[in-house]
Amino acid sequence: MSSSSPPPAPVIAVVVFLIKDNTVLLGRRRDSVGLNTFALPGGRLEFGESFEECATREVKEETGLDIKDIQFLTVTNDVFTEAEKPFHSVAIYMRASLSDPDQIPQNVEPDKCYGWDWYDWKKPPQPLFRPLETMLKTGLNPFLTH
Ligand code: 8DG
Ligand code: MG
Q1: Under DSSP, is residue 59 helix (H, G, I), strand (E, B) or coil?
Q2: Is the distance from the beta carbon of residue 13 to the nearest atom of ligand 1 less than 6 Å?
Q3: What is the Å distance from ligand 1's center to 102 Cα?
Q4: Average of per-residue pLDDT across 46-70
Q5: Which residues, by Cβ under 5 Å, contact ligand 2, an ion?
Q6: Residue with CA nearest ligand 1 atom 5
Q7: Other residues' Cβ atoms within 10 Å of the Cβ of residue 115
Q8: Confidence of residue 138 (pLDDT cuts 50, 70, 90)
Q9: Cα(first)–Cα(last) distance of the chain, in Å?
Q10: DSSP track, 122-143
Q11: Is 24 a pocket residue for ligand 1 (Cβ < 6 Å)?
């Protein structure tokens, strides 16, 4: 970034702890930000959306799954200064469950993700996407409000 260009505006994203029994849905990122790290489904809030609408849309777009019982969990504020293009992201974390527990996740955006699977949140795969790792260290348990 040249010293004359203003920094990019912070991005607002909604990400979803999709819970099934004792497990949570994670996918390995295929993106320059957090390449190869495990992250939740989610993406940028679009104009006029509620957090619940954004959660529903992003989960559907990335995994093909339909969700229900969507609740607010927490919010995080991360600045990625070491990224190729530095950026600042505010993430709204929601939790949800599957509308139909027999539904199977699809890798709808294979250019952005290596695939989705269910993982035990007590033994999450490594490495986690850094903002998710930071959130985990706060001790918040997404299962408690279940
Ligand atoms: P979009 O263009 O489809 O709207 O966005 P995206 O391409 O799906 O964006 P993303 O990188 O998946 O998510 C947006 C931001 O959310 C991401 O850059 C940083 C923040 N974020 C967290 N934690 C997590 C997480 O666990 N998963 C995802 N996907 N994003 C997260 O802070
Ligand atoms: Mg995404």
Answers
A1: helix
A2: yes
A3: 26
A4: 98
A5: 43
A6: 43
A7: 12
A8: confident
A9: 43
A10: TS--SSBPHHHHHHHHTT--TT
A11: no
